[in-house]
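Example record

The entry below shows one chain as it appears in the dataset: sequence first, then structure tokens.
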Amino acid sequence: MITLSESGYYRIELAESGVEVLIRGAWHAQQNNEVLIQLDIVHQAPRTRSETLLRGVVEDSAKISLTGTIIVEEAAQDTNAFLTENILLLSDQAQAEAIPNLEIHANQVKCSHAATITNINQEHLFYFAARGISAATATRLIIDGFLAAATTKNSPTSQAERPL
């Protein structure tokens, strides 16, 4: 498993047949911090597999930008690649962007990407309140659970996919 933790540009190359990689990243940007991630996952050989889950929480006047690109070169037939970017937006002043990309040059591949930017559901906070849990504690629990999914090896990017 590869864990991304700092802002920056990352390039991960799958250069040998049969290579599998699990990529995870989780960030919590607060105050006026910026988290800028650019990730290229390059499949260069056949029968390679990548599964990527990037998650961010942004609040105050912070900014998160997640840009991930799956690149499948012509020789990388029978590639499976999955990329998911999720951001939890906690402030009207915060900025968030999630930009997943596919660049496919082979014809026998299974690739997908997805992105979401959302707020905490008020019904979830109501659920916690009905059980005597304060809004601040509920928010912290929701944030912790949201980010934990991107730091655990057995957290697939979608329920339809099998973990590596």
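Notes for this example: The longest strand covers residues 79-89. Confidence is low (pLDDT under 50) at residues 157-164.
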